[in-house]
Amino acid sequence: MTTPGPRRGFWCECWTQDLAEEERPALLASFDAYSAPEADRWVAVTLRTISPALDSDASDVAWAWLSQGRIATRQALLRCEPCAVTITQDQTRITWTIRPAIFLPLTHRQGAELPACAYNFTPHATE
User: Which residue(s) pair with 121 in the sheet?
Assistant: First the structure.
């Protein structure tokens, strides 16, 4: 059994980067949204949740996006354009990205018989 055909939506990611250590960004979270409102809501809920812990500069950036930037983000998403929201707290940069995506249908494993080769796998013992 498969899900219905391909669905348009948005792939959302949250990346963090330690600027003091000059590390590469690390993926913190990802989310599949099936509408522009759902995608920008994911960022908005996160920003509202963390805003009390942010310093004043980062909090100002967060609330500026929540009050003004979110409108531009929603309009861009409705045009199927990628968007990003970035704040910097102390030495940590947090970036949320939202990109248009097409989600392909997957086959459900419930009630499906696996091929014979699937039963040949034996996991290695841990030491």
Answer: none
Distances (CA, A) of 27 to 18, 33, 56, 91, 98: 12, 17, 25, 17, 13
Distances (CA, A) of 21 to 51, 62, 100: 24, 24, 32
Q: How far apart are CA 33 and CA 97, in angstroms?
A: 12
Q: Which tokens belong to 90? A: 């102390």
Are 46 and 30 within 8 A, CB to CB?
no
CA–chain centroid gap for 15, Å, is 8
Indicate whether 74 pLDDT > 70: yes
Q: Look at the pTM and tell me if it is higher than 0.90.
A: no
> What are 37-51's pLDDT values in tens digits?
999 999 999 999 999
Structure tokens at 126: 């841990």
Question: Helix, strand, or coil here: 60?
Answer: helix
Cα separation, 114 vs 106, in Å, equals 15
Distance of CA 43 to the CA centre of its chain: 8
Residue 3: pLDDT over 80: no
